[in-house]
């Protein structure tokens, strides 16, 4: 294992060993407090451009499942067709793995997909630095190549355009009871699975595609990476669709932010984002609290919601917005992941609510 150093923008240095693909890399350093789910997280397109730090100390012990593709074109056990995170940073990498569904080690998978991995770093100390300072840009540099230092850019980059599909893709064509246009900002496969399970036909379109000339019964806006302010074309298309006040609209994660922008609200960047499986969220107007899976660095400013809109969910840790709804029209969203893969699945009922409206 070669010696590597993670260098943060504030000058902090963390020394570790390489266990993945050996190349220097740069990106926004973020932390995820989930205890499981590294295959799903690494293949989540919302991690594009980011170096993912896992706070759970032992990683890799259950290996990696096979990358099998279903008849509908979706991977069986992953959230997209490849790893999207720029790198993974862990405390203790387990070289030996044991799981009924594992076919290779995490290290071998990273090497195959040319993604760096660091082990031997105190990831909880790194997380403390990120929590106190806020997320920072960082670089992974190989100690024996000190002059090979990559440059990092994240702010202002349209990562949605990098991960969105490039052409229209149809699922369950002619079979579903209702048609849903899915605006792909970096959609996780389990969102598509959750919709297909509810017997709908899906028309998956690129993020900037004007879908308003199509025939459909509902609009779904997916999750995705980066800054929602880089996605104005999507906002304009959503706004056009909202001229039909009876059209059901449901957004998740980035979809919450784009729907909010289409409704006139503003977005801001969180100090260190929400990336975990254990964020407590309360449904506004009730005593119902749900444990949710999340992965986002931006949030909707509740104070900028128009008179026709109201918060639907609120984060119990920091009071930030976790979803909105329109007071009269069938439009709502969730900042968290109701389809959460890997788990929890407490809020998957939101898909049922959407399908009922179609």
UniProtKB/TrEMBL annotation:
Lineage: Bacteria, Pseudomonadati, Bacteroidota, Bacteroidia, Bacteroidales
Name of the featured protein: Carbamoyl phosphate synthase small chain
Organism: Phocaeicola coprocola DSM 17136
SMART domains: CPSase_sm_chain
Function: Small subunit of the glutamine-dependent carbamoyl phosphate synthetase (CPSase). CPSase catalyzes the formation of carbamoyl phosphate from the ammonia moiety of glutamine, carbonate, and phosphate donated by ATP, constituting the first step of 2 biosynthetic pathways, one leading to arginine and/or urea and the other to pyrimidine nucleotides. The small subunit (glutamine amidotransferase) binds and cleaves glutamine to supply the large subunit with the substrate ammonia.
Entry EC no(s): 6.3.5.5
Residue ranges of domain Carbamoyl-phosphate synthase small subunit N-terminal in the record: 2-141
Binding site residues for L-glutamine: 46, 224, 226, 254, 257, 295, 297-298
GO molecular function: ATP binding; carbamoyl-phosphate synthase (glutamine-hydrolyzing) activity; glutaminase activity
């Amino acid at each position: 294992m070669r010696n590597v150093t993670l260098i943060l923008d504030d000058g902090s240095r963390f020394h570790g060993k390489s266990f993945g693909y050996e190349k220097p890399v740069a990106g926004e350093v973020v932390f995820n407090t989930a205890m499981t789910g590294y295959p799903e997280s690494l293949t989540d397109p919302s991690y594009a451009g980011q170096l993912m730090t896992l706070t759970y100390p032992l990683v890799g012990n259950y290996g990696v499942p096979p990358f099998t593709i279903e008849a509908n074109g979706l991977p069986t056990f992953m959230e997209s067709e490849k790893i999207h995170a720029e790198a993974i940073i862990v405390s203790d990498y387990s070289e030996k793995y044991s799981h009924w569904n594992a076919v290779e080690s995490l290290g071998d998978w990273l090497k195959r997909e040319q993604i760096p991995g660091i082990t031997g770093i105190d990831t909880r100390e790194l997380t403390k630095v990120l929590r106190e300072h806020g997320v920072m840009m960082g670089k992974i540099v190989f100690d024996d190549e000190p002059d090979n230092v990559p440059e990092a850019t994240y702010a202002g980059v349209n990562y949605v355009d990098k991960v969105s599909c490039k052409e229209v893709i149809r699922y369950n064509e002619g079979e579903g009871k209702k048609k849903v246009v899915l605006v792909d900002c970096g959609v996780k496969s389990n969102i598509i699975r959750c919709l297909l399970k509810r017997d709908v036909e899906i028309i998956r379109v690129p993020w900037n595609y004007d879908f308003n000339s199509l025939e459909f019964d509902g609009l779904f806006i997916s999750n995705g990476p980066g800054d929602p302010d880089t996605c104005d074309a999507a906002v304009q298309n959503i706004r056009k669709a909202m001229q039909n006040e009876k059209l059901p609209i449901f957004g998740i994660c980035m979809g919450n932010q784009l729907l909010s922008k289409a409704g006139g609200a503003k977005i801001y960047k969180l100090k260190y984002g929400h990336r975990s499986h254990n964020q407590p969220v309360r449904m506004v107007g009730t005593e119902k609290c749900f444990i949710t899976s999340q992965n986002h660095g931006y949030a909707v400013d509740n104070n900028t919601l128009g008179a026709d809109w109201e918060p639907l969910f609120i984060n119990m840790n920091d009071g930030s917005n976790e979803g909105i709804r329109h007071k009269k029209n069938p439009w709502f969203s969730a900042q968290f992941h109701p389809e959460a893969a890997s788990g929890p699945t407490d809020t998957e009922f939101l898909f049922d609510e959407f399908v009922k409206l179609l």
